[in-house]
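Suppose you are handed a protein chain with no further information: no name, no annotation, nothing but its sequence. What can you learn? This example shows the usual starting point.
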Amino acid sequence: MRRADLEAFTEFVAATQAGTVRLAELLTGDRDRAEALAREGYARAYARWPGIRRREPLGYVRRCMIAVCARRRYRRRAGPQRPAAARGIPGAGLPGHGPAGDPARDAALRALAGLSPRERIVVVLRCYLDLTPAQVAAELDLAPGAVAAITERALARLAGQARLAPGTPPRPSAGGPLLAAGEAPP
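A reasonable first move is to predict its three-dimensional structure. Written in structure tokens, the prediction is:
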């Protein structure tokens, strides 16, 4: 690789690493596997850097990570996990991202952990990256209808988890007044 390409790649990694690891943690549910997944995405991008440099290199890294994650290599393993505060959350303290140990962030990671790997990937792509169903379908080589069905099922599971969680904040009901989780309307 030419020196200019190497410098450009180094700058690219420095500028995108925190967000890439944050995405990887949402996909894997674990900081250690997230860092390994991000490294693999960057390694694949490095191998193709001269060809992808002027296009969308971050999209390439993301697609590599999603492909690897979808193959079950970095999926959450069964068994106890260290709390998010003990693992440290990538990007903690960055604007828009809660610090390690933030109850809302920890709850979101726990909720995502309750989804199947495919559901988790689809929800992260749809809700965190804000991709359209067509974009998610293209990323995962699925039909748009399958993406819609997976998203609906996953969001229903997440909503069910939220209703069952102790200390769930009140939410508006169809009738309008705020009700606590599980509380019947008047």
